[in-house]
């Protein structure tokens, strides 16, 4: 499979990761994942903006403009030709020898860019039936708004949930629900949609951004306020959102049913609107071609 490595598109077997790459040694880098529908990148601009925000938060100067990065990603997408999938791209702070914790001089050390595309299909079974999750203490750092490649905290949380036989982790910080291990988390109570406010404790999801827009059009009230474990267990519905999995209902947490233990009415309405928005996006791109 072809990948993007800095400015080149080459076979993945030709990529050389230096032992002293700061991404490899420190997890010193950031990433993004954009969903590709019918050969087009969905909400590309929003993902690129968040990528630039993450770069700024880790004090990294990117060696290309948004337009240049977008052109490279599109070159890769054209070369690989996957119609439905996701593009993953990351930038590490680069190769600096010897290994020192100090950030290297950005005039000397250039960030290293990598991108690859993999096929992905809509997880329809999970979207229709929902999944079972477990509560896990949120022990991640306090920069969860940065889309950092250092995902160990998220991986540990997911693994803890899986060890207990659940498919997903619902993270709790000081009794409040933050998000899931790689998704934003939502609950519905008495027709109102609740989710954790953006800030340092969660990733500001691009899917979350889209849902804000769709719920406005649907006339569903959204409150971005933190809620507790107890409030979530007493909710009517729960779901998680991410670019790759879109909207997936959570029907049980710690073996306790949420609502009637089935994907809820409001969740289904939002999922339907989300898929319709994607179909419109795809149609608009087809008409442009
Ligand atoms: C921790 C975390 N929260 C939320 C999300 C959802 O973000 P998005 O909707 O932009 O994919 C992700 C996606 O990877 C994530 O890793």
Automatic annotation (TrEMBL):
It holds the Pfam family Aminotran_4. Keywords: Aminotransferase, Pyridoxal phosphate, Transferase. The keyword Ribosomal protein does not apply. This is D-alanine aminotransferase. Its cofactor is pyridoxal 5'-phosphate. InterPro entries: Aminotrans_IV (IPR001544), Aminotransferase-like (IPR036038), BCAT-like_C (IPR043132), BCAT-like_N (IPR043131), Class-IV_PLP-Dep_Aminotrnsfr (IPR050571), D_amino_transT (IPR005784). GO terms for molecular function: D-alanine-2-oxoglutarate aminotransferase activity. Belongs to the class-IV pyridoxal-phosphate-dependent aminotransferase family. Homodimer. It catalyses: D-alanine + 2-oxoglutarate = D-glutamate + pyruvate. It is an enzyme of class 2 (transferase). NCBIfam families: D_amino_aminoT. The keyword Transferase applies.
């Amino acid at each position: 499979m072809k990948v993007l490595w800095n400015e080149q598109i080459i076979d993945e077997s030709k990529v050389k990761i230096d032992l002293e790459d700061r991404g490899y040694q420190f997890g010193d880098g950031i990433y993004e994942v954009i969903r590709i529908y019918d050969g087009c990148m969905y909400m590309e601009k929003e993902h690129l903006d968040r990528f630039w925000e993450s770069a700024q938060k880790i004090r990294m100067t990117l060696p290309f403009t948004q337009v240049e990065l977008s052109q490279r990603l599109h070159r890769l997408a054209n070369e690989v030709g996957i119609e439905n999938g996701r593009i993953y791209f990351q930038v590490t702070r680069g190769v600096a020898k010897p290994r020192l914790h100090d950030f290297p001089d950005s005039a000397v050390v250039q960030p290293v860019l990598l991108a690859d595309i993999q096929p992905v299909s809509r997880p329809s079974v999970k979207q229709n039936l929902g999944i079972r999750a477990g509560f896990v203490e949120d022990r991640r750092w306090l920069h969860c708004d940065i889309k950092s490649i250092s995902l160990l905290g998220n991986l540990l949380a997911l693994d803890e949930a899986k060890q207990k036989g659940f498919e997903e982790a619902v993270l709790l910080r000081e009794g409040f629900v933050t998000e899931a291990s790689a998704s934003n988390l939502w609950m519905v109570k008495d027709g109102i949609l609740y989710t954790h406010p953006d800030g340092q404790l969660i990733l500001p999801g691009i899917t979350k951004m889209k849902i804000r827009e769709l719920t406005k059009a649907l006339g569903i009230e959204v409150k971005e306020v933190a809620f507790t474990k107890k409030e979530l267990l007493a909710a009517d519905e729960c779901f998680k959102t991410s670019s790759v999995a879109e909207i997936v209902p959570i029907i049980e947490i710690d073996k306790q049913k949420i609502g009637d233990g089935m994907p809820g009415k409001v969740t289904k309405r939002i999922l339907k609107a989300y898929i319709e928005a994607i179909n419109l996006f795809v149609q608009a791109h087809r008409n442009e071609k």
